[in-house]
Amino acid sequence: MNPDDTNFLDYLSKEEYNLLASIVNLRLDIDVFSMLDGLYKTPLKNIEVKDSEAVIPSLYLFVHFHYYFSVSCILRSHVTEGLASLRKAIDASLTAYKILEDPTSEEAYLNREWLFQNIKTHIKKARDKDSSLFPLAETLIPMHETCSEYGSHADFSALEHRIDVYAIENSEKRKLIFKYFDYPENSDMYHCVFVDILLCFHTMLIIFQPFMSSRLGGKQAEWEAELEKIGQALANEQNSCHEHLQGS
């Protein structure tokens, strides 16, 4: 896609085509997405919180929004933007993680203190000193760093795969094309990216589990069992698809 031969309506129509094609091609992944979405939404239907407890639910809803937004970006063939959205969700989850582990830190978050302006760095340093701290951050921190490189900044690594340069016939000039849509090069890799993102959001949901499950009453055991089941399925699928990619 090049601005010389398209317009905004063309761009929107290609987005919608990509969305529909992705839903068909990734049908099984969409089913898993819906199952995990149901686990995110169950607490919203069953819990009540006081005004003084609003920070964690607000972060939870922020993460859930980015669950929708990042996946919708992936389905529309905007992988880079999907990673940028995923990074925000990880930031919010790590913020909630710190507050849940240390409730006295909530005031620092509300005051926008350095700790929460650099929450990933804070948790990474804490884990460097003691790896038993914030264990759920083990996989989220590397993904956060990947998102920062490819999705959140204008590093050349975020641009080079979206640029093509073509020779112009009978001319010494060359034409530069910027790809307005970026996506994995084949369906296997597309599936693998999708699974990676789903597993990240599953891990983020586990961070909120202590706050949410304790308020679910009679639904707690069922919710926790389903959360564990889908997490194991996603982890197994991630291992399988990465092994397949490495062997191909």
Q: How many E-type strands?
A: 2
- The dominant shape is globular
Give the count of structural domains: 1
> Which series of helices and strands comes N to C?
HHHHHHHHEEHH
Number of helices: 10
Provide an overview of this structure.
By secondary structure, this protein is mainly α. It has one domain. The radius of gyration is 20 Å and the shape is globular. A two-stranded antiparallel ribbon has the order 1-2. It has helices at 8-25, 27-46, 55-75, 79-101, 106-110, 114-117, 119-129, 137-152, 187-213, 220-247, and strands at 163-167, 174-178. The protein contains 10 helices and 2 strands. A hairpin with a 6-residue loop joins β1 and β2 (174-178). It starts with 7 loop residues before the first helix and ends with a helix.
